[in-house]
Amino acid sequence: MERWRCIFPKISEQQIEKFIKEYRGDCLVLSYSGEERQAIKESYLKNRGVVAKIMDDIIGVSYEDEDRIRDIIDEMIETKELKKAKGYVMESKKAKEKRRKAAKKEAEEAEKVLRKIEANEGTSDLKALIQKRQLDRGSFFDDLAAKYAQQPKAKKKKK
Q1: In terms of domains, do 54 and 98 share one?
Q2: Are 106 and 85 contained in the same domain?
Q3: What is the pLDDT of residues 104-135, one digit of tens each?
């Protein structure tokens, strides 16, 4: 496990938030730049403007970001960088509301799982330590038995 952690260090929430901020680029200026803008454009073209699929494709996006994503798409349509797609224009309010409800439900479930993981995090390290010691103890007794136990004598074959 130690070797694994040396190769792949534990990732914190702050690191994820920092990555998402860098990925989005400068969101304070209306001309959104960066990787996210390009990803939105590619996803829009790939999914023919279907917002639900676009939201699934973009890294670090939640239902709360939908208006921001739509603003970026609208800006690209205005500048003729993208053409209006049927899936984008014809989306119903019902579909948008259904997507928001599903996202809220998913967020609540994720919060429950996170609380459960945080509660067990301290005990999981302890469990791993106990299991490692039990394995070490078991191998120690096996070594003792191999060293000091009498070996059964080989039976002689009758002729």
Answers
A1: no
A2: no
A3: 898 889 888 888 877 776 666 677 777 777 77
* Pair of tokens at residue 51: 């917002």
Backbone angles phi, psi at 7, to 5 degrees: -75, -45
Yes or no: say if 63 and 106 are a contact pair by the CB < 8 Å rule. no
Task: State pTM to two decimals.
Answer: 0.62
SS (H, E, C) 8-24: CCCCCHHHHHHHHHHHH
Q: 71-102: per-residue pLDDT in tens? A: 999 999 999 999 999 888 888 888 888 888 88
**How many Å apart are CA 96 and CA 83, to the nearest integer?**
21
Q: Are 57 and 43 in contact (CB under 8 A)?
A: yes
